[in-house]
Amino acid sequence: MATDPDCIFCQIIAGELPSTRIDEDERTVAFMDINPASWGHVLVVPRAHSVDLHGIGVEDLAACSAMAQRVAGRQAEVLGADGINLLNSTGAAAWQTVFHFHVHVIPRYQDDPERDPLTLPWVPAPGDPARIAAAADALRCGDPT
Ligand code: 5GP
Ligand code: ZN
After folding, report:
1. Which atom of ligand 1 is nearest to the CA of 20?
2. Listed residues: CB within 5 A of ion ligand 2
3. In a domain, 75, yes or no
4. pLDDT truncated to tens, each residue of the chain (145 aa)?
5. Of 42, 54, 108, 120, which has the fewest beta carbons less than 10 angstroms from its beta carbon?
6. Active-site residue flag, 102
7. How far apart are CA 17 and CA 25, in angstroms?
């Protein structure tokens, strides 16, 4: 299995660095984020080192998704979360700071700024239709109807 001795998440997975682990399976480990965005913020990581969304294998990605769903269920059931955000940051431009793939599982609490001080990081506004279409033309795969 791929590991990187300089990677802090590989060190956490190996037990060489401490973490507050809440769940694990063959492919993934879930542990508490030390800088929680909200109360109960969890990170889900693949055991195998991969840098980001571009590099992770599809089986590990699926396993991380399944673990994130399981963690989210417990955040709702046990912590009483009203909602959940899943976040992956791929690349420094997208705020990635630890370069071992991870999914943030962030419980959300309605009207509770003490447990949940988060705000939407963009201002929703209608986009220019021509620019939306240009991006779609560049991104389109095959001939979807
Ligand atoms: P990113 O910024 O790459 O999307 O997320 C990295 C996350 O890892 C951050 O939310 C940060 O708080 C968390 N983090 C960084 N170092 C450690 C650590 O040593 N232990 C734990 N549990 N979380 C960490
Ligand atoms: Zn790693």
Report:
1. 22
2. 4, 7, 9-10, 49, 100
3. yes
4. 999 999 999 999 999 999 999 999 999 999 999 999 999 999 999 999 999 999 999 999 999 999 999 999 999 999 999 999 999 999 999 999 999 999 999 999 999 999 999 999 999 999 999 999 999 999 999 888 7
5. 120
6. yes
7. 19
What count of Cα atoms within 13 Å lies in the side-chain half-sphere of residue 22? 19
Is residue 106 domain-resident? yes
Q: Specify the number of domains making up the chain.
A: 1
Q: How many Cβ atoms sit within 10 Å of the Cβ of residue 13?
A: 24
* Long-range contacts of 11-16, Cβ-Cβ distance < 8 Å, separation of 24 or more: 12/45, 13/45, 13/47
Closest C-alpha to 51, from 18, 7, 11: 7
Q: Please give the backbone phi and psi of residue 26, each rounded to the nearest 5 degrees, phi first.
A: -60, -35
145 belongs to a structural domain:
no
CATH code for position 54? 3.30.428.10
Q: List the beta bridge partners of residue 107.
A: 84
Answer whether residue 90 is part of any domain: yes
Partnered with residue 108 across adjacent β-strands are 83
How many H-runs (helices) and E-runs (strands) does the chain carry? 3, 5
Ligand 1 pocket test, candidate residues 16, 34, 56, 103, most atoms within 8 A of CB: 34
